[in-house]
Design brief:
Layout lengths: L5 H11 L2 H23 L2 H17 L1 H4 L5 H38 L4 H16 L2 H12 L4 H8 L3 H21 L6 H11 L8 H18 L3 H6 L4 H12 L2 H23 L2 H25 L1 H7 L1 H26 L7 H22 L13 H9 L6 H17 L3 H11 L12 H7 L5 H9 L1 E3 L15 E3 L9 E6 L2 E6 L14
Antiparallel strand pairs: 1-2, 2-3, 3-4
């Protein structure tokens, strides 16, 4: 069953006066409009009046809006205009009460203080954005549209729609920063998603639908007076709206200045509350971490698909080990097999792997924590060409073993998932990759992963898009054996191990190797 678009519903209402079409529009947007109005007027009853006024305006302009691509943007701007008129007449009476209430909230240091900082500025900041940026944020975080739905509405690709959202979030953060509110991109998204849209009072949608339909029909025939009568309003509400129309622009500017001064005073007081600020920052970090973990879990299916080749390879290793075990068992129990070339080769290779491990145990300074990632096939491969005649031969064999271990490290995968979960942002420190690396290396404990991360350094921070393609992001700090070792380098979903010992070309990006 196809769900009608906003434009189709507007045309049905404009052409046929379809009450069902208008009721569906109210159902879709009443929460968004009411929440915006409530943030601006700070009064539930006045917010209902603003919400009713917005949908009356929608009924009047249904035909003109039928070709408007993003109805949410028009509704939000209309709500702000109507709310601003009401606020001008009501702000004097509320200023003192609001000042005392804000101070009490700051002193009590409730956990929702971050939202309390953002909410007074949110709608003004949204309206400073471009129309496309505003539409992208409203669709993504106010209406919970997916990337595919956003792309269809905005007539673009999914990737372009996601980039539009990322740029809009960054721009919104800049606007909040100018107002003295500092918050990370992840924290801003979480706070807006959790608080920006609140449920309108029960029955409001039905009341608006009936009243606005009647208003639209009246406009088409006689005058707009009946619209006002159709919406049930109290005497006080009518008085406030009448006073709003009569308010002068000068008075509105003066009162807006007073409100701005109050906000500045509140922000100064907030900055003096150092313990509260630390708590807020800690909550923000926890929210960012939770969001990163959520993104990681959501990408689990994709990760499993990408690891399918590795799984098949491991299954092959298991089969190879079983075959090797059978061959060894046969060589031990059947004297007639002692001359079998394959059995002799397996025995020799196994013995050489054991000898290589013995040399490693005798040289603990040549160990690295990545060696725990090696499988049986890696040991056999390292032992295949290993020589133990001289000290140099042993060091070369151990270097090859370490190179195989570093090749098993999924640091590139951890970088890729981190950037994807943080809108293309790189980590500020190598330790931020730990949860992503731990997800890729499920068999290792925390201490081992910490030891691995200590051996590497982060080359770049900031946005991934600012760097050249295939730029190396994480490299090994120092070789274990400078004469015969290799160096591991990792980028976004790419990695390499470069031979840097005697007789090798070394790392072209670092002359010390």
């Amino acid at each position: 069953m196809n769900i009608p678009t906003d434009q189709q519903l507007l045309r049905d209402y404009a052409d046929c006066r379809s009450e069902a079409a208008f009721a569906e529009l109210v159902r879709r947007y009443v929460d968004l409009v009411y929440s915006a109005a409530l943030r601006m007027v700070r009064d539930a009853h006045l917010a209902e009046d603003v919400t009713q006024g917005v949908f009356v305006a929608l009924a009047r302009n249904a035909r003109q809006l039928a070709d408007h691509p993003v109805l949410a943007g028009w509704l939000h701007r209309t709500a702000q205009n109507l709310a601003a008129n009401i606020v001008r007449s009501d702000v004097r009476r509320r200023l003192r009460e609001k000042k005392a209430a804000v101070m009490n909230e700051l002193i009590s240091a409730e956990p929702d203080v971050l939202w309390e900082q953002i909410a007074p500025h949110l709608d003004a900041a949204l309206n400073e954005l471009s129309e496309l940026d505003q539409a992208a944020l409203l669709l993504r975080y106010f209406q919970n549209k997916s990337a595919r739905e956003m792309a269809q509405i905005l007539d673009t690709t999914e990737d372009a729609a996601q980039k539009r959202v990322s740029r809009a979030v960054d721009r919104l953060r800049e606007l909040f920063s100018k107002r003295g509110v500092t918050i990370g991109a992840g924290g801003l998204v979480v706070v807006i998603s959790a608080n920006a849209v609140q449920a309108a009072p029960a029955g409001l949608a039905a009341a608006i639908s009936s009243a606005a339909v009647l208003a639209g029909a009246t406009v088409a025939t006689t005058a707009t007076a009946t619209i006002t009568k159709a919406i049930a309003m109290s005497t006080l509400q009518k008085t406030l709206i009448t006073a709003t129309i009569a308010a002068t622009a000068g008075t509105g500017i003066y009162e807006a200045h007073q409100a701005s001064t109050l906000r500045d005073q509140v922000q100064t007081f907030q900055q003096q509350q150092a313990p509260s600020t630390e708590q807020i920052l800690e909550l923000e970090r926890q929210r960012d971490d939770a969001m990163n973990r959520l993104a990681m879990f959501q990408q689990e299916n994709e990760q499993l698909r990408q690891n399918m080749a590795e799984l098949l390879k491991l299954r092959g290793e298991v089969a190879q080990l079983r075959a090797t075990k059978q061959q060894l068992a046969q060589s031990k129990t059947t004297s007639s097999d002692t001359n079998d070339p394959f059995a002799q080769y397996i025995q020799t290779l196994t013995a050489r792997a054991a000898e290589l491990n013995q040399h490693l145990e005798q040289m603990p300074d040549k160990k690295i924590p990545e060696l725990q990632l090696l499988g049986v096939d890696d040991w056999l491969k390292a032992a295949q060409d290993a020589k133990f005649d001289t000290d140099a031969d042993v060091r070369k064999a151990l270097s090859k073993l370490r190179s195989l271990a570093k090749g098993r490290l999924r640091m590139d995968q951890a970088l890729g998932y981190f950037a994807r979960a943080n809108n293309g942002q790189l980590p500020n420190g190598i330790s931020q990759l730990k949860p992503y690396l731990k997800s890729a290396l499920k068999d290792l404990d925390d201490a081992t992963i910490d030891s691995i991360l200590e051996r590497y350094t982060l080359l770049h921070t900031g946005k991934l898009s600012d760097l050249p393609p295939k730029e190396w992001l994480v490299v090994e700090k120092a070789p274990v054996d400078k004469d015969y070792d290799s160096r591991a380098k990792f980028g976004n979903w790419t990695s390499t191990v470069i031979s840097t010992g005697i007789g090798e070309s070394g790392d072209p990006d670092d002359k010390s190797y």
